[in-house]
Amino acid sequence: MAQRQFQTEVNQLLHLIIHSLYSNREIFLRELVSNASDALDKLKYLTVAEEAYKSLSFDPRIDISFDKDAKTLSVSDNGIGMNEADLVESLGTIARSGTRAFLEKLSADAKKDSNLIGQFGVGFYSAFMVAEKIEVTSRKAGEDVSFVWSSNGQDGYDVEQLQSGGRDTQGTTVLLHLNEEGLEYANRWSIEDIIKRYSNHVAFPIYLTYDENEYDDKGKVKSSKKKTDKVNSGAALWRRAKSELTEGDYHEFYKQISHDTDDPLFYVHTKAEGTLEYTTLFYVPKKAPFDLYNVDYKPGVKLYVKRVFITDDDKELMPTYLRFVRGVIDSEDLPLNVSREILQQNKVLINIKNASVKKLLGEFKTLADKALSGGEDAKEKWETFISQFNRPLKEGLYQDFANRDALQELVRFKSTAVEGWTGLADYVSRMKGDQKSIYYITGGDEKTLRASPLLEAYRAKDIEVLVMDDEIDDIVIPSLHSYRQETPGADGKTESRSWDLKAVNRAGADEELGEKKDRAAEKEIRPVIEKLKKALGDRVKEVKLSRRLHDSPSCIVADENDPSIQMAQMLRAMGQTEMPDVKPILEVNGDHPIVAGLKNTEDQGRIADVAGVLLDQALLVEGVKLKDPADFVKRLNRLLAG
Ligand code: ADP
Predict the structure, then answer these.
(1) What digits encode the pLDDT tens for the residues 414-443?
(2) Which of 438, 374, 327, 382 has the alpha carbon at shortest distance from 393?
(3) What is the rounded CA–CA span in Å between residue 442 and residue 566?
(4) Which ranges in the chain are annotated with CATH 3.30.230.80?
(5) CA-proximal residue: ligand 1, atom 19 (nearest)
């Protein structure tokens, strides 16, 4: 029979697992048990949801056994099973494109591999760390033939139909032929220990079969008989009372469902009773999942109905911006045979989802408040949270209108007034006098933004400006328009106050910067403005006398409803070719000698050179790429030569 080849990505994954995970070999057992548990979940669902499976008698269990002399270990389940096509599809390829992208990233940065790979479910293939050969015997529920898949993890694999010796029931047996390193796991105590640590809360019973020996007085084995013990606690952890559970229990369960090797940052366990009855257990990881920014990320929340697993692949269970949350929703009110396709329209589920989002956002807020008033520990937790999840929360600002107020209190920015992160409420609490708006600058990296001449007048007036260097700020913040705060007033009513959010690189953001100039001085500079306007023609939308400049001669701003120049440039780079050419407004500093120097000249060549340099240098400091750098250099050199 011809051998089949693994998909290239599987070969890469196998190589990586064997070379970077060896310090954590024991997780192979967690992965095999977790696959067995998934297979049982899938079959259990069919037996309640589909007519054809309802008559199937099904006593779900996972069995582990080993033989030290034969150097084997097996993990067996009576779950959904696999037929020939399933075996090829599941154990010969990697379906998810996000996983493929992840693999590419891993190979490029080999040193970090072992760290990164922990975040990512390595699954079945991890068994090749401890086995020189694996045989998977499987029979699919509802079918009556067994197939065996076998491989040494190097030269592809075989799939064969078994004529005899197949499985009596549906399900899968994974038989490992242990290698040198794997031998230590052919041992009752190490298996029990690993199961207790990683798989104690798997919701199906796990049985371990071992030899119980009797010894004679010389210490020799007198007789030996097979014994089978249940080795996990086997209850759905989320259904147990909080008071019965330790932090260790919660952490172990998290690792089991997330494949993360690290403890979670925190968890929220909620039991709702009343009109709707459900349990949720949510976790926030310490590190953003590897596929956070992939379109086909794997959702982290599983749905159960009365403890029966329904789905772990429904992106609608959480809003997209909370896709980093891991955990379980278990409802008492949904019908067991709810079809996965119509879940999204189900009222019960919508209510549970809404309540869950509120609960999570409330929990994040508590974390933020504790960081302000609490000790180092709380501070560190919050900082970790924000460093990983600030960005998805900002996505929430334009995705989730209903929770916008809560989200506004969570997102953080950099600022000209303080080090580290700050929130909008903090900004407002630092405002002086009767400042009316919240100011921010966007459109470049932090260093460029902090050096922008646009900030000069704000600095001089001691007005704080938020430094928004994250690309997403440019998209999210303009859609926010204003920040609203509600505080309990003296007479028991809530008082609502609101501040406009204004970009300093826009026309209209300079109203609080004071008067332009006295009339006489303005009149004197008018002709210079006209000369510049004429010289620049349609390169600019307008030339104006600036209120924001102190030291620099010029700056550019965008008109109130135009996209910023940087944003337009970014969109064009992303392939938006029909993007109209937005023109900047050039603002000049009437007190600057370069500008004032134009009062007494009518030399058109010189005026054109000065105008060009004023515009191009303003574009340069804002990080905009010049269309004609040679022209800029030529003009500059002419001016320098006098
Ligand atoms: P993952 O579990 O993350 O999908 P794996 O590599 O562990 O990745 O498994 C690949 C696929 O093989 C699973 O998604 C499942 O379809 C199938 N599979 C693995 N083990 C079993 C099993 N014991 N019973 C049925 N199907 C299985």
Answers:
(1) 999 999 999 999 999 999 878 989 999 988
(2) 382
(3) 9
(4) 238-370
(5) 35
Nearest CA to ligand 1 atom 20: 35
In this structure, the residues whose C-beta lies within 6 A of any atom of ligand 1 are 31, 35-36, 39, 77, 79-82, 90-91, 121, 123-125, 172
**Residue 317 CA to its chain's centroid (Å):** 15
Distance CA 565, CA 623 (A): 10
Q: 515-640: what fold? A: Four Helix Bundle (Hemerythrin (Met), subunit A) (1.20.120)
pLDDT score for 108: 61
Please compute the mean of the pLDDT values over residues 9-13 and round it to a whole number: 83
- Using the predicted structure, report yes or no on whether residue 334 has a pLDDT greater than 90: no
The residue written with tokens 């290698």 in the block is 179
Taking the centre of ligand 1 as the mean of its atom positions, its distance from the CA of residue 81, in whole angstroms, is 10
Q: How large is the angle between the packed helices 27-49 and 188-198, nearest 10 degrees?
A: 60
Please list the residue range(s) of the chain that carry CATH number 1.20.120.790. Answer: 515-640
Give the pLDDT confidence score for residue 509 in this predicted structure: 77
Q: Is 518 exposed, middle or buried (0-12, 13-18, 19+ CB in 10 A)?
A: exposed
* Domain 238-370 belongs in CATH node 3.30.230.80: yes
Of 391, 465, 382, 380, whose CA–CA distance to 427 is shortest? Answer: 465
Beta partners for residue 75, in sequence order: 64, 174
**Local confidence band at 140 (pLDDT 50, 70, 90 cut-offs):** very high
pTM: 0.75
**Burial tier of 434 (Cβ tally within 10 Å: 0-12, 13-18, 19+):** exposed
Given a contact cutoff of 8 angstroms between Cβ atoms, the answer to whether 61 and 207 are in contact is: yes
469, 444 contact by CB (below 8 A): yes
Would you call 475 exposed, middle or buried from its count of C-beta atoms within 10 A (0-12, 13-18, 19+)?
A: middle
Mutate to test the pocket of ligand 1, among 91, 124, 302, 312 (most ligand atoms within 8 A of CB): 124
pLDDT at residue number 486: 84
Model confidence at 561, pLDDT cuts 50, 70, 90, reads confident
For residue 110, what pLDDT is reported? 56
Q: Per CATH, the architecture of 8-233 is what?
A: 2-Layer Sandwich (3.30)
Are 402 and 361 in contact by the 8 Å Cβ rule? The answer is no
Q: What is the pLDDT of residue 447?
A: 93
Residues of the chain with CATH 3.30.565.10: 8-233
pLDDT at 574 over 60: yes
Residue in 315, 307, 313, 396 with CA at minimum distance from that of residue 360:
396
Q: In Å, how far are 185, 193, 194, 211, 455 from 189, measured between CA atoms?
A: 9, 6, 9, 12, 66
The CA distances from residue 319 to 281, 322, 403, 545, in Å, are 16, 6, 11, 47
